[in-house]
Amino acid sequence: MQETLRGIVLRTVKYGDHSLIADLFTDSHGRQSLMISTARAKRSVRSVSFWQPLSMVEFSAELRPNAGRLPRPADVRAYYNYMDLPFSPVKSTLALFLSEFLCAALREEKENLPLYYYIESSLQWLDLAESPSSLANFHLAFLMHLSRFLGIYPNLDQPDHYFDLLAGTYLDRQPPHAHFLKQTEARALPVLFRMDYPTMHLFRFSRSERQRILHVLNEYYRLHVPNFPELKSLEVLQELYS
Fold it and tell me: Which of the listed residues 39, 54, 80 is the one where a domain comes to its end?
């Protein structure tokens, strides 16, 4: 039976001469892969643009478990058209990082409507932000709050001398492994995790501080999301704010 879904494109991979495999995070079925025919799309830039990373599309498809083949979408349309994100060097670099990060973090994610709305609203906020220079902390705020929707938000109650990244909680003594923060960084976490999009411009970090925060967040996800890979876009993002 045909269903109507909304999805956010995570990535596309060329398949043969006239097809793409598109990975999406959908509102009602979580992570899904689709087979996209590009034979006729070559004559239409608009139709190809539906499948750019982070595009928001609505489509109909027949999703049958164990069907042995990928579903093909029909009646495809963009339900949100970006106004500024594709044309801003800062925003498009952030989008490159977010698409790769989400592709890794949502590898096995099932239906999660609050998560879908969080990603959707965050991308729209990024697109409509008027001052790209104020977005230096956007990716940090996004990653911190994303952890809540994935069920891996750290326990920041009762700050102590050490924060165990593996256990996601504070300890009064050094844990028996290398994945932890010492007192100065550990005690800064509750304040840091209060940062959100409206307030992130108030958090002033040096280049090295911002890179350190990103490193810690990336390590935290690698510890808590199975098979989380090294991200190729991480270096590009660090260069953006160098």
Answer: 80
- Which residues form the domain of 23? 3-80
Tokens representing residue 135 in the block: 């977005």
For residue 172, is it within any domain?
A: no
Torsion sign, CA atoms 85, 136, 158, 180: positive
Residue 40 in this model has a pLDDT that exceeds 70: no
- The model's confidence at residue 198, banded by pLDDT at 50, 70 and 90, is very high
Write down the pTM of the prediction: 0.93
What's the token pair of residue 220?
């935290």
Residues 35 and 111 in one domain: no
Q: Which of 140, 230, 155 is nearest to 192 (CA)?
A: 140
Q: How many domains does the chain have?
A: 2
DSSP state of 217: H
Same domain, yes or no: 75 and 91: no
Backbone angles phi and psi of 145, in degrees to 5? -80, -25
The C-alpha angle 221, 222, 224, rounded to 5 degrees, equals: 60
Band of pLDDT at residue 125, cut at 50, 70 and 90: very high
Same domain, 209 and 114: yes
Percent of the chain at pLDDT exceeding 70:
95
Alpha helices in 107-157 (DSSP H): 113-128, 138-149
Are residues 134 and 198 both part of a single domain?
yes
Strands annotated E in the chain: 3-15, 19-26, 30-37, 56-61, 74-80, 162-164, 169-171, 180-181
